[in-house]
Amino acid sequence: MSETVVSVTPDDGGYSIQAVSERCGINPVTLRAWERRYGLLKPSRTAKGHRRYSEEQLARVQAVVQWLEKGVPIRQVQALLDSSSATNELTAEPVWQEARERALEALESLNLRRLEQQLNGLLADYGHARVITEFSDPLREQLSLSPSLSLQAAMLHSLLTQKWSGKALSLAPGRKRVGWVLVPLGDPLAALELAMVMNVPLWCLDQPADVDALIQRHASHPHFGVLWVANALPNAVQRARWLPSETPTFPACIWGPLAEQMAGDLPGVHLLEGSRTDVADALLDHDLEMSS
């Protein structure tokens, strides 16, 4: 397989925004928000107006990520970056706890528009990976604990599915470009959430595809690998339709809470473990192997 790969080394003018995105795992939209809204970054510009990031700016992006991972609110990061003494003067606020409480209030009042606005703000500031891990994952878990909150849980699920589906469409590869096909075995939201943190081209399905159809398609269009996202066990009939009984002709992986239970019966299918970010990194490496 082959594709045009964004160079992650700087040219004479510095790193492009795409290169910084790939190196640091931060969506370009979020990088622009850090620059415009919070003044955290100051890339130079080419004659055509394209951003170029120096090594110093790249290090600054990585420093921002480190502070956010410690729970520091985005609005406090500027002072921490600009003053070495500020480290002990500012304390992290419970950003995510407050965000989840606001979301619960919006769901309680059935105000999905307000919840969507809140979600958009979090995405602009922190990116999909952190929002899913720190906001939507614990919020969904909290709602699942009480049957009386099933309506709120269903509304949140619906909103997330619609938001992530729209973003997933933008990740679809162009003509003759390589990519991964994400196939859900169970709730398609799990595949969509993984798609949000992957930094590679992909097609994210909302239902399983017959494995024979995947094999036939790969024979004429050998530009994809398949990742099954397993959070439900298929029955015998479904298993025969959806999963390979012999080593598939395409690169194949499986991940999810039930993946280990299923992987032993899937010849030639690689078991992936760890977090969504771990899987995204593994697929990026695997994709490079396929391209070599």
The number of distinct β-strands equals 7
Order of helices and strands: HHEEHHHHHEHEHEHEHEH
Let me know the largest β-sheet.
5 strands, parallel
Number of domain units: 3
CATH topology of the largest domain: Rossmann fold
Structural class: alpha/beta
- Number of DSSP helices? 12
Shape: globular
Which percent range fits the helix content?
40-55%
Uncertain parts: 1-8, 85-92, 288-292
**Strand ordering within the main sheet:** 4-3-5-6-7
Q: How much of the polypeptide forms β-strand, as a percent range?
A: 5-15%
Subunit organisation of the chains: single chain
Q: Any idea what the CATH architecture of the largest domain is?
A: 3-Layer(aba) Sandwich
Query: Nearest-angstrom radius of gyration?
Result: 21 Å
What is the CATH class name of the largest domain? Answer: Alpha Beta
Mean pLDDT: 88
Distance between the termini: 7 Å
